Amino acid sequence: MTATPQRNVYVDYDSMMDEDIVEFAREGSTEALEYLINKYKNFVRAKARSYFLIGADRDDITQEGMIGLYKAIRDFRADKLSSFRAFAELCITRQIITAIKTATRQKHIPLNSYVSLNKPIYDDDSDRTLLDVISGSKVTDPEELIISREEFGDIEGKMEEILSDLEWKVLMSYLDGKSYHEIAVELHRHVKSIDNALQRVKR
Q: What residue stretches are annotated with the RNA polymerase sigma factor 70 region 4 type domain (predicted)?
């Protein structure tokens, strides 16, 4: 059993396993909690970038991911789970997806959906994308099955019907991770024109 670090006593968290640090955080160590949040915040941001919700700011999705991280710290049980990172990843993903599903139901807008085309599902080094998830070529865990092939086709089809040619191209490039400047150069448009097109899409 791990002892909780006392106040004013330096603890080298870098040399500790995450599972032990989580135990400290669960027992009231603010330093341990802050360490875990700082350690995993880039991981949360990378995962948040894998999702796109029309009408929502990317920071909103990141915030949901941070809530998932906090829940992982709160609920982790070392005697039942071997890896905190794997558990945190699951909690972060569930929190983001739940928030997006809730937003979609509340707004009743088919386009207000999570669409990640070519971005990694997990961290930036991952080679799994939403297209892989939809096709089922690399994913067998139901928790990772975000939307079905049919739902994705419906979303894509409705987008193409509603959006102008420019708006569609801008959206696809934006989801592909390109900057406004890169999209402007690619489409031979001014950056302001790209920004306006994306704002119309988000509305």
A: 170-203
